[in-house]
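Hi! If you just cloned this repository, the fastest way to understand the data is to look at a raw example. We've pasted two of them here, unedited. The first protein comes first, obviously.
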Amino acid sequence: MAAKLKKIGVLTSGGDSPGMNACIRAVVREGISRGMEVVGVYEGYRGLLNEKFKTLSARDVSDTISKGGTILFTARCKEFHEEEYQRLAAENCRKHGIEGLVVIGGDGSFAGAQKLSHFGINTIGLPGTIDMDIACTEYTIGFDTAVNTALEAIDKVRDTSTSHERCSIIEVMGRNAGYIALWCGIGTGAEDILLPESYDYDEQKLINHIIENRKRGKKRHIIVNAEGIGHSSSMARRIEAATGIECRATILGYMQRGGAPSARDRMAASIMGAIAADLLAEGKTNRVVAMQNGKYVDIDIDEALAMQKHISDYEVSVSQSLAI
């Protein structure tokens, strides 16, 4: 089927996540196979404003599927919240003949794509964030790799924590969402998991749990703390003062965003990227590619941004019962 659009762009926006390059690669190669020219927009929305464009060939994205980060780079762009800059970005697209745009990122990136569609640019959003906090989709590109990176680090901290008979607080990323913390906590057998969605900030209850476990003979106590709660270092000092048990904090930080993407992230990114290119080839706009009930779907961006996401209460209760 001949493409309705002749030239499309692709950009990555917000925080980088493993699998973004696999997604870019899929957009480029599927777009070319559909008869479209594909332009890489460098540095996200900032690059859209500064006209940092380059036509990409199939060869340009060779050997990128296994690379972490994003070959198109990414940047925060506060100006894009303002209508005059949104209009300028749309004008820049038209100036360069870019009729459609694939935006890989989170909710903030989708909001930018939504605005561009209002100014006549066909836009498709792809969920790329390690936080898995996009309500319209069951899965986001980068989550699996980030969780496995954190799991490996926590397993290593647990070994030394046991050797020294200490309490360890390991802080993982996720912004205001606790998905990484929940998966890491269950996956490493942590004694406590602190989630923004459920933590009641009763630190005394946490201290009592540590003391009770020590009385039962536990040699170490692992607390997985979500970024949305934070303050792990000061929490460790308070716990040590209250319990007399040595307590150390480890903040994993940006290591969770890097590294070669897992098989799941490569697969999800490739399929989602190809779907995005197909949608633009068909003249679709203002859509988000998502996974729902285990299947890839596309939904309206307006509908996607209006959704809210919640961690399963049952999964939280299971994390508590498994830690006894």
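Ok, and the second one:
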Amino acid sequence: MKPEMMKAVVLTEPTMAENVVLSHIPVPQVRPGWVLVKVKAFGLNHSEQILRLHEIQADYINKPIIPGIECVGEITDPSDSHFQKGEKVAALMGGMGRSFNGSYAEYVLLPESNVFSVRTNLSWTEMAAVPETWFTAWGSLFECLNIKESDTLLIRGATCALGYAAIRIARSTGCKVIATTHKESKLPLLKEADRAVLDTGRLAGGMQGITKALELVGPKTLRDTLRCTEKGGIVCSTGILGGVYTLNGFDPIKEIPNGVYLTGFFSNYPTQRIMKDIFTFIDSHHIEPVVGAVYPFQNLADALYDMDNHKVDGKIVVKM
């Protein structure tokens, strides 16, 4: 039997991590087309930081808002959906934590279309490191880059949760992986790649044989990444770790080398088939998702502070 009240983070204005507190609010009431999920754990994401510090001021954010774009848990009330009470699920994206309340709560009410049944051998903590991070890596590598065993893949900005996931997926397919970081102290964190490279901001001219490139630094280094890629190769721009969000003055005719293809991955449209494929891939390849640190829900402010200040390598998971 679900309680009447729950703990949650409720935001109405820009909020520093140290000022985040847990409020007591009513558990959401179920309605047709939506399901109530008891949250077991959730991962933290850079986009939630953007919301909390800046984006919350935008008119399109429905305030007050509970942040959180992903979670894993159990169905508490399936309403009129196909789910069963107690079913293990993952939920992500589609407006979660922006258009409607997200996962920084003990219970979350979600559209049926945002929730996906999961069968996995992973623990709740490991499972929570998967949904958004692995979906983005999966889509970037397979849907956009079409990676194959014969490829040499450059992952630029690889010392992040998404980068670690991409390395593991790509290596499991058999392709060669070259991974970069802009900090020399982080090179040992890329030991699972075939080659770790210190990124000075200019790699073109020093790279040979790159057939596919996953750009996680973003527009800040995209022009250089395009010049690193062999003719016939593909570059997928997925991340914005460099803090530059647009390509001002970008001339595609002059700046995309002849025969090199540029694409991008937008992670807003997960499906049940893709989520099933991801968890099946993880289990069949005996992969342990990289969890950088685990925090109890009552210490969420500490987790957010450590994310904001880049104190954790790998996915930060908050566990109920």
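That's it. A detail worth noticing about the second one: Residues 184 and 260 are 30 Å apart (CA to CA).
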